[in-house]
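New to this. Please check this record:
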Amino acid sequence: MHSADKHPSAFYERVLTVVAQIPRGKTMSYGQVAAAAGSPKAARAVDSILKQNYSPDIPCHRVIKSDGTLGEYNRGREAKR
């Protein structure tokens, strides 16, 4: 197992905390999540973190691309819609 899997970084934890607080019916961009988690230039890292999330407590389907399109979703784009 990769060490990051055993001990998530502080940024990883902050990303999940930010995403968990996105209200139903609202969205944030990957960049907005990165900024709220303290690393405004880490939008790609946010994407990587959320691709690994399968927790129903973290509504990663509410995170979209900055251009307003859906982007990827680990449960399929139709589920994200």
User: Anything to note?
Assistant: The CA atoms of residues 34 and 41 lie 7 Å apart. Strands lie at 28-29, 63-64. Helices lie at 3-6, 10-20, 30-36, 43-51, 77-80. The radius of gyration is 12 Å.
